[in-house]
Amino acid sequence: MGGSGQEKLKVLIRRAAIQKRVREVAQQITKDFKGQRVHLVGVLKGACIFLSDLVREISLDTSIDFIAVSSYGKDKQSSGQVRVLKDLDSSIEGLNVVLVEDILDTGLTLNYLLRILQQRRPAILRVAALLDKPSRRIKEVKGDYVGFTIPNEFVVGYGLDYAERYRNLKDVCILSLPPE
Ligand code: IMP
Ligand code: MG
Predict the structure, then answer these.
(1) Whole-prediction pTM value?
(2) Which has the closest alpha carbon to 149: 24, 12, 48, 35?
(3) Which ligand 1 atom sits nearest the alpha carbon of residue 161?
(4) Which of 6, 41, 55, 63 has the highest local Cβ count within 10 Å?
(5) Kind plus residue range of the DSSP H or E element containing 20
(6) What does the angle CA 161 – CA 164 – CA 169 come to, to the nearest 5 degrees?
(7) Atom of ligand 1 at shortest range from CA of 106
(8) Catalytic residue among 53, 105, 161, 171
(9) What is the pLDDT of residues 144-176, one digit of tens each?
(10) Is position 102 annotated as part of the catalytic site?
(11) Is the peptide bond before 45 cis (omega within 30 degrees of 0)?
């Protein structure tokens, strides 16, 4: 039981690179939805920091909402079981929705979310994800706006956690744990 002392962090994406890329993604969204309104739906809690930075770089009429789904808990493995813990506050019917995710990993969460949100008849439903780990895909899903494609490593920071920790790191870092 070494606690955080034996956990090692290695920077994968620096804050300046994140900032620059978030601005580019926001500009693309601004261009794609020119003259329209976009409704950003953040997936709690991992996407909260990405969404906060993203929305401020979008030059459109915007609104935001959040949804929370069950996550891995303390495990690094996906159970494949997804459950809504906190639903949206308002209807998305007829809206241009951009679902904002921290990371696309197995695709199980996104697959589930797209299915339930599509049933609510948005005008458009797109996906923005800060990170994409395509090598771990179980369900075929694709982000429309992806910040960075990364290798198969467990990462934390800029909203991403390990057992609720490290969300406050300004860089995205690879976390290595001591052997069990
Ligand atoms: P998926 O359903 O396997 O695609 O997993 C999506 C969720 O798992 C993300 O929204 C994250 O909360 C979490 N997750 C997946 N990979 C990582 C990682 O490398 N670091 C931290 N959280 C992760
Ligand atoms: Mg998480």
Answers:
(1) 0.93
(2) 12
(3) 21
(4) 41
(5) helix 15-32
(6) 45
(7) 3
(8) 105
(9) 999 999 999 999 999 999 999 999 999 999 999
(10) no
(11) yes
